[in-house]
Amino acid sequence: MASSQNLNVNASIATHSTGTPTHAIHDDEYWMDDGSIVLVTGGYAFKVYKGILAAQSPVFRDMFSSSAEGKESIDDCAVVHLSDSAEDLRHFLRAVFPLKQIKYYKEKGNAKTSSEAVFAVVRLAHKYQIDELQRQALACVQEYYTTRFDLWESKGSRDDVSFATSSLPAYAIGAITLARLTDTPSILPLAFYDCHRLGARVLDGWTHADGSTERLTERDLRTCLGGARELAHLAALAAARVFAPTPRCGVGCTSLGRTAGPYMHVLNHGALLDAPLHPFPDDMKQLAELYGVCEACTGCFETRMRAERRAIWSQLPSLFGLVVDGWDSQ
Fold it and tell me: What's the whole-model pTM score?
């Protein structure tokens, strides 16, 4: 990791006045009466503990040690101006100074962490060089953006992960940014897959709680659109193979000539085409029953569908022009 002396964190300790900075509102959550440093950003002031920040972050430690006489102060505490959004800083402080028990790894019954919170912690832990905090928050992100098909199938695709996921995953734009920022390319294949699921909405970007919008770079947008085309082609072929007519499976088989019904249902509803790595959202048994497909042939469809998802998974990095060491392609 780069030395903190060479890292531009866009922060300064003011040296021009004494008193409360104009328009700086005391944060309701992080204004500690016995705090020893005031962080100001986005119109909010956060009074926290200088020693704890300095012990965890070499960037803050260097920042605090460079303070000068006559610096701006509030309640006899030095004021540090930061460039982070107030919302991001609040998420970060909740991890560094938890006021209640917070776990990034979800246990049964625990509320999920928001994607906004997890991604903000990764960004600021990276910026301020708190390596262990970055590792833990990134592990939370990678629980969903995994390299392993078995984990994706059992957890990620079923939303059984530590942070809250969505059927319209605009946070995938932020995941790509984090992957580039932290040099974690293993996140990229599924993040681009999620961006492809957004369709034209990917152009709208990811709007954060503070109203700012994060967008893909032109390079990443091109990667997303190019991969989406290839993915759509594979998904269409997969649907055709899943519901291909089968010989009669045995006495009493009702499937011959009836597989077109489920196939057209899938095409009309678009689920398999729009999200080919996700489990089929409709109950296959109910769908087969609706169209008169027998139980044995229904099981054949389900086996084929998993095999097609597995095949697409193995090609996912290459669809977006990526090379990811350790990608589960077996």
Answer: 0.86
